[in-house]
Every structure is written in C-alpha cells, then in structure tokens.
Amino acid sequence: MSSSDSVVFLESYYEPMAANLARTRLEAAGIPCFLSNENLVSMMPLYSSITGGVRLHVRQRDAEMALEILREELVPLATGPDIASFAADAPDPVAPRCPRCGSSDVAYGPATRNTYGFWSGLLSVLLRFPVRGHRFHCFHCGNEFK
C-alpha cells in the first residue's frame, strides 16, 4: 500500500446533513470518500464537539482535488423570481467568523460549555437533560461565542 492510497481526514462538519452533502458532491465528481461519527452525532448532537463532528475522509492522492471541489461555489440550477425572493428573505450571507482566531469554520447550535446559571442548571438536573442556550462554535480553536 503506497502513501497515496492512505486515507486522510479532510473536513469536519457540525451537522450530519452538511457532511452528507459534501460527501455527495465528492462522489458525484468521482472521488471515493466516507464519513465517520455520523451516527453518533445524529443520535447525540451534544457529542459533536467532543468527537470532532462528522468527519469526511478521502484518499491522500484525492485530497487536493476534493478540497477544490468543496471550496467551489454552488451555482443554482434555475434563476427566477422565486429564487430571488427566497434569497431576499435569507439571513445575512456573510458567514460569521470566530473573534479569537478569525476562522469561518463555525456553526450555530447547542452550547457545549457550561453556559447556564443556577436555575437552568437545576432544571437540567431535574430533567436529566442539559438545558443550554445556543451559541456559535469554532471548530478551529474551540471558542464559543454569541
């Protein structure tokens, strides 16, 4: 087995759906790939940051081409008033950036750190389920911010 046939980690995704979309794009381009931690993150979303999210893996020799494909902008199939009106209702298209490291590899979801006060902590113990707010999480440095 040569080093170009070895499997390497390419990207990490907070949402399993985003990881599956990336996998589908690569497979459509003829690049074999697979996901890990998909089932764990789907069943237990709070474990996403602990496990590193849903991870996308490719062969070493396909890594550069796969990164180029994933970085390409998706072009809509059709244009018209329906798509334009939908885009006008969409939130700000500028992706948030981490204030600590400047990375755009952030996702919005349930907070992973202790972000609750006394009452929400007590409610979490009574319900046996963490009651936490939502925050942005940076996958590059691990910072959480509003």
Automatic annotation (TrEMBL):
Q: Which protein are we looking at? A: DUF2007 domain-containing protein
Q: What is the lineage of its organism?
A: Bacteria, Pseudomonadati, Bacteroidota, Cytophagia, Cytophagales
Residue limits of the DUF2007 domain?
16-72
What's a Pfam family in this record?
A: DUF2007
Membrane-spanning parts: none
